[in-house]
Every structure is written in structure tokens, then in C-alpha cells.
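Item description
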Amino acid sequence: MTRYDRQIALPEIGETGQAKIARAHVAVIGAGGLGCPVLQYLAGAGVGRITLFDPDHVEESNLHRQPLYTMADIGRPKAQAARDRVLAINPGVGVSAHVAPLSPANAPSIVAEADIVIDAADSYAVSYILSDTCLAAAGVPLIAASVLGRTGYAGGFCGGAPSLRAVFPDLPASGATCATSGVMGPAVGMIGALQAQLALHWILGLDPSPLGRMITVDLARFHLGGFTFHGEAEPPRAIPFVEATMLRPDDRVIDLRDAIEAPVPAAPQAIRLTPEALPDLPTSHGRTVLCCTTGLRAWRGAELLATRGFPDLALIAAKASG
């Protein structure tokens, strides 16, 4: 008996499929509620190489939905603790752990080195940065998911299918997160497991492809659904995310956070404004970059400025620590 006997026994996998899994390189962005089941099942399946990015540390409030971690891990970087657990599950998997966030600057190199990318970061900004980058890379698919409370979805984007922006061209009206609105552990675990399944399905080259498909989960009503989005058009205008290191000297930077929320502004030349003051902002022929913590206020502000004829806009999502 070997580790993968029950998997190889499936006629759609066999030794050939197991070899495909062993050759695969998966980039996983996030080692939280979604990332934990993703990592467990990729490691269990024998994925050859995993590159993991997560900037956070384990907190006790994580433990109800992030079973990779124990009380002994509290205070440790998630990426390092997750790597150790993955290697304990399967020492034959290569894991490169980075205690760092996904950013517009490092996303291109991460995507370029991976066969497939899994977005498990629970961040609007990260999801769109990854989608934009995977779309530009043409052949690299993105398995993205979102969960809140007892509902969520998992789907396959880019890699020849429409991007996340094609399906969700606008940010949600609410900025609710798991931290503000709550989430049940089994719900996030189920959706993370779906991400792993979709990724393995693509790695194996099985039909139908998971790309261009969305699976929806509503555990409040015990309902599973989904739809295909093949042929959805990319939006004609996409306001990109950038970061402070990518700013140009002549950029006009608008920081929508006040000094209490962010004592250090997004850039030395940043002007602090409230969202309510944006309608009075003079039109600029150069690039205007709007900054907030999550990207939500900046996105909405940029949409407003776009309707006023601002020709070049960008967004920064920056935590208050800078």
C-alpha cells in the first residue's frame, strides 16, 4: 500500500494523473479559513510544489475555522506554521512559505512561476490584483472564493476563461468581512475544500473544465447552486491596484484615511480628503491614485472621479501600519 493508492484507483487519475499532480506548482495566497483546507488537501493529494504567501500571525480567534493551527501556534506567522503542518501531513511536498502580503508589485512574479493560483486571502484588493495579473499572464488560471456567514462561492477564472472583473465588475455595496459579520467554520472549510477540488480537477485536465464555472454554497438553506460564465465580456475599463513603491513623481495621491486611522499617509505627497470631498476635487490630466485600507472606499471614489472625466486612475489598499 502506498500513500496515494485510493487516489490512483480512480480511473480518471491513475498513475498518469498522479504524476501530473506531482509535477504541479500551485501558488496559494492566504493561509486562513480558506487556505487551511486548500493546503491540507493539496498536500494530501501530493501536489509537488506549493508557494504560500500570508502576512498574518495566528490568533486564538482563528482556531474555530483554521484547523491547521493549535494553541501552541498562537503568535507564529501563519505561513510558517502552515508550512510545518503541511510537511507533517506529507513531507514529500515542497513548500515555500513567505510571511508577506500579495501586492501589485510581487504578483506578476508569483503568477509567472505557478501553474495555477488559488486566492484564499479574503481580501477584495488581493482578489482583483490576482485576477488582473492572471488575465495578463493569459495561460495561468485563478481559483477564487469568497465566504461570509454561511454562504459563499468558489470558481475558476482566467487561464482562457473570463476574469473576476468580468463576473464582478463592481465591488459589493457592503464592506462586510468575516471579522465584522462572522463566519461558520464548516462553511469556510467546505468552500476551501471546493477550491482544492477545482484546482486538482484542472491539474488533471479533466472534463468539464472548472474554468468559467462558479459553484455557490448556501448552508443557511442547505442549497448548492452554480452557473457558467463562459463568454462574459471583460469590462471596458478596469481601475488597477498599485502600491506606494509604484507611484510616479507626478501622481496626485489622495489618502481617504484620516490621521487617526493611518498616522502615516500613503505617500509623502498624499493629500488627505474625506470621500465626501471628492466631488469638489479639481480634474487632473495626470494620474490620480486613491488610497484606503481595504480598497473599497478608494474604488468607489475612483468610480465617481471616472464619471467626472478623470482620465487616469489607480487604487492603493494599505493597512494603517503602512
